[in-house]
Design a protein that fits this description.
The structure is a single chain. This protein is of the alpha/beta class and about 375 residues long. It has one domain: 4-Layer Sandwich (Purple Acid Phosphatase, chain A, domain 2). Helix content is about 30%, strand content about 20%. The strands form 2 sheets. The protein has a 7-stranded mixed β-sheet with strand order 4-5-6-7-9-8-10, with no helix packed on it. Helix 2 (about 70-90) packs parallel to helix 3. The radius of gyration is 22 Å and the shape is globular.
Length: about 375
């Protein structure tokens, strides 16, 4: 009897291995996230809207990617769907969700998108009914700075498959062909999604310049840029360490954002919350403000404060602008000080309100001595 059982197991496992090695078996492909039940109107049709809200968060990769649904991310999604439904009938409705990257641990692996991520975002687009916009992180398309990298191509293919029904198509004037770089306008606000993994890429930079130069500023009073790497941060990716994407963002994009009066830069990469404020003066001596939020509490392992970044070279690069940087909210020194969270942004004309919504044990998180702050 024992020999029969052993023989049966050998036959079974041989069949399994043969099936796995069977030539011609199609590779797994990333499933497309379902489109929103309530998509955004055409850009020109929303021109009169000046009061709305949206959600920004980031870094949702989980410990069990490729094996099961991201648990910590699911807690964030539960809260988001609940808040979206609440504000739809009692408040300023949420019109879309932005994500600053690192959807999964390894974007080159289709199983991680399919098993762990896509079904959660489907809840936002179907139960919540809202559009979803993801900017790629280094875990999604790798940290390769060269757009010709083979590993980057694998991750990018999977990213584009997941987002196929959500971001503008290649033929759109709001999409850089072949890149995960795109833009959209809603109401009085314009949104730019960059691939900060290749922040030094000249083609992407030129496209962003053209988008900003061509904007109708009589309509678009607010410009938001969202991407993965923060120009300034105080976690393990920041402090005394300046990663190449952050260096390129400081050199290329931040002067461009000042030139065009970008209102807020929304990023992740650090698994915590912090808030920077940059002020400067233009050639007419008028003072301007740009808020820079790092919101990476979407489910990835939590991080903590490591130290202040060096900013002297950045400030001295444009002395005429009299740049000042304020670290308005610093993260805590322990991971437990920095909970899973997302940020609800409410636009009311040119007034912006940032409300940080903590999840689970962090539900009482109050980074501003309260959970929110408003800026003009």
């Amino acid at each position: 009897m024992h020999r029969l059982i052993v023989s049966a197991f050998i036959v079974f496992f041989s069949a399994v291995l043969a099936a796995e090695k069977k030539p011609g078996a199609p590779p797994e492909r990333v499933q497309s996230i379902k489109p929103a039940k309530e998509p955004l109107p055409r850009e020109g049709d929303s021109a009169g809207i000046t009061n709305f809200s949206f959600i920004i968060y980031g870094d949702t990769r989980g410990r069990r990617d490729g094996k099961e649904v991201q648990y910590e991310h699911s807690l964030v999604i539960d809260s988001m769907v609940s808040r979206i439904k609440q504000l739809k009938t009692n408040g300023v409705p949420v019109r879309f969700v932005l994500q600053s990257g690192d959807a999964v641990v390894d974007g080159r692996d289709p199983k991680q998108w399919n098993a762990s991520f896509v079904s959660l975002i489907n809840r936002l687009t179907t139960e919540g009914g809202v559009p979803y916009f993801l900017a790629p992180g280094n875990h999604d398309v790798t940290a390769a700075g060269e757009i010709t990298s083979t590993n980057r191509a694998k991750g990018l293919t999977n990213y584009l498959a997941a987002m196929a029904q959500l971001i503008p198509p290649d033929v759109s004037v709001r999409r850089l062909e072949g890149y995960p770089t795109y833009a959209f306008g809603y109401g009085n606000s314009f949104f730019l999604a960059l691939d900060s993994n290749i922040a030094g890429d000249p083609q992407q930079y030129l496209w962003v310049v053209q988008q900003l130069d061509g904007l109708d500023r009589n309509r678009y009073k607010n410009i938001f840029a969202f991407f993965h790497h923060p120009p300034f941060s105080s976690g393990g990716h920041g402090g005394v360490n300046v990663e190449a994407p952050s260096r390129d963002l400081r050199k290329l994009y931040m002067p461009l954002f000042r030139e065009h009066g970008v209102r807020a830069v929304l990023t992740g990469h650090e698994h915590l919350f912090e808030h920077w404020v940059e002020t400067w003066v233009d050639k007419d001596k008028k003072k301007h403000r740009m808020d820079q939020l790092v919101t990476g509490g979407g489910g990835a392992p939590l991080a903590y404060y490591h130290g202040e970044p060096a900013t002297g070279d950045y400030i001295n690069a444009d002395k005429d602008a009299k740049i000042e940087l304020q670290h308005l909210v610093k993260p805590g020194p322990r991971p437990g000080d920095n909970p899973y969270h997302y940020v609800l942004v409410t636009v009311n004309g040119t007034e912006l309100k940032f409300e940080v919504i903590g999840i689970d044990w962090g539900s009482d998180f109050k980074p501003y001595r309260s959970s929110s702050t408003s800026v003009q």
